[in-house]
Amino acid sequence: MRTRFWKISFLSTVMLMTYIPIISLVIFSFNEGKSLTRWSGFSLQWYVKLFESGEIMEAVMTTILVAVISTVISTFLGTFAAIALSKSRRVIRELVMSANNIPIVNPEIVTAIAFFVLFGTFAIERGLVTMILAHIAFSTPYVVITVFPKVKNLDPNLADAAYDLGATPMQALIKVILPQIKVAVIAGAAIAFTMSFDDFVISYFSVSGSAVKNISIYLYTLKRGVEPTINALSTLIIFVIGTKIIHDYVKSGRKSMEE
Questions:
Q1: In sequence order, which ranges of 87-156 are alpha helices (DSSP H)?
Q2: Domain boundaries, given as residue ranges, for the chain
Q3: For residues 211 and 223, what is the distance between their CA atoms, to the nearest angstrom?
Q4: Burial code of 4-27, b = ≥16 C-beta within 10 A, e = fewer?
């Protein structure tokens, strides 16, 4: 009984520490005043000002654009790299996977400085293109490590069976291999999108000196500190994420009931 009490207390404490700041952020996004700690009354003015702010909207669009483009390309590269590695020799596979893991375990600031030096060495003008290239580079390894285990566990005879039935290599890939690893590919894409959407350090160094800003860079460069409009933006992001989680939960519940 005592052990159960401590377990519940510990879990409750962790949940409170995690969600109280988020709940506070959501509540004060509807605050009439500018204070982030003192309630003045209910108002939607910060949501109105959010959509009226051209600078914030530009940062949001840049964030989404970079995240979508880098996710699509990194998912494509990572998926086909994982498939190729599954057919490679063990020595080559282990060597490539070890190299693939370096950007993942490497401190982000080191990777950011490496991109900064690389773009400077080749005199590449920093801007939207360099940010996208940097995001593709650090997102692809996450896709590889997500998709590779699923590809490795596939029945090696699937492709041979497709060839025997008259399928071309491309048809075997699209109609046989990819449907089998679809869940892993989607998971890899989700991780890549999240990493890109959330990134600050690499984004900041990859566009250093240019006028391009994503959400994280915009927040970092605010001269007056965090504004209530940022609470409104964060609340909208939380709402979108929460809606997606609830949708997936309901969908999985229905599937389990049908089974």
A1: 90-105, 108-121, 128-152
A2: 55-247
A3: 16
A4: eeeeeeeeeeeeeeeeeeeeebee
Residue 256 has pLDDT above 70, yes or no: no
Contact 79, 141 (CB under 8 A): no
* pLDDT tens figures, 101-150: 988 988 899 999 999 999 989 888 889 999 999 999 999 999 999 999 99
Give the bridge partners for 42, in sequence order.
31
Model pTM score: 0.85
Q: How many CA atoms lie within 13 Å of 41's alpha carbon, on the beta-carbon side?
A: 4
CB proximity list for 53: less than 8 A, separation 6 or greater = 229
Question: How far apart are the C-alpha atoms of 241 and 235, rounded to whole Å?
Answer: 10
Nearest to 214 by CA among 132, 141, 136: 132
Query: Superfamily for 55-247?
Result: MetI-like (1.10.3720.10)
Over residues 20-30, the pLDDT tens digits come to 888 888 998 99
Residue 42 φ/ψ, nearest 5 degrees: -80, 135
**79 in Cβ contact with 143 (< 8 Å):** yes
Rounded Cα–Cα distance for residues 93 and 103 (Å): 17
